User: What shape does this take?
Amino acid sequence: MQHQPKITIIVPVYNVEKYLDECVGSIVNQSYRNLEIILVDDGSTDSSSDMCDRWADNDSRIRTIHQSNSGPSAARNNAVNICTGQYITFIDSDDVIAPQYIKTLLTNMVNADADISSLSLNLSATQHSAPAGKPVTMTAIEAVEGILHQRKLDNAVAGKLYKRCLWDSVRFRTGIYYEDLEVFYHLYLQAQLVVHQDTPLYFYRQHTSSRMGSFNLKRADVLNVVDEIEQYMEQHHPMLLNAARDRKFSANMNILWLMTSTGITSPQLADRCWANIKALRWNSLTSRNVRLKNRMGALVATLGRRALIFTFGIFKIS
Assistant: This one.
């Protein structure tokens, strides 16, 4: 690759002293070197803030922003506002990336003349060699449909490289848990082409101290997000409406399952989930491209609410 465009890597940081050095180390050791690395300290109360400053002192490609604790959406937005790269990617501060991660994303994007390039996420956070899949190019509509149906593609902002122009009028919504799901389709539906390679070069760490590592009722904001996606597709992209409704079905099933499995419940919220599941179960049974997990859930849901909760209870015990 003769031209070496600048790529901005944005890392929101909050109380991750245990993982931060490994994360940033994997970034600065990328085989692709023309990087702008923005570490956004989101009001950390441990040593993460000082660690960010030390990294910036030791590598001229790194700069640190310090802000009062406002959440990852605000941290990412502040970095997007000041970044100077032609492309943007996001990495969570407790994750790591393989040395060829950035180069692979960019090479695939350039070769496909795509606007978004993505790789699979490795959910083990353990780096190991994996067979490299072939890059697959698709339209934005095809990509969004795959993401909504949760088939191979995902809505996470991590594991993606974006042309900077896609962010000109888009920012993360602050104050919600599912900001990635809320923002992804606004980005993808601006794109002409998307390229995806089923090769896990991004290592995602799951742990109970992360925001998504445990359940609380605030996570039910996903139900508002999927309602908005359904309404948006109905108005602007009706060909994606069945996929949007399948994702809505999945979200309601997941929240009801989490309440059942953790014992953290709200009768009003449970009623809302069941009403949506009941309304959407036939869509997920009959629409094309619905994953097997959703079809099975929809099938059980046809037997009624008690049967569904009983099934959840069996899986909780096992």
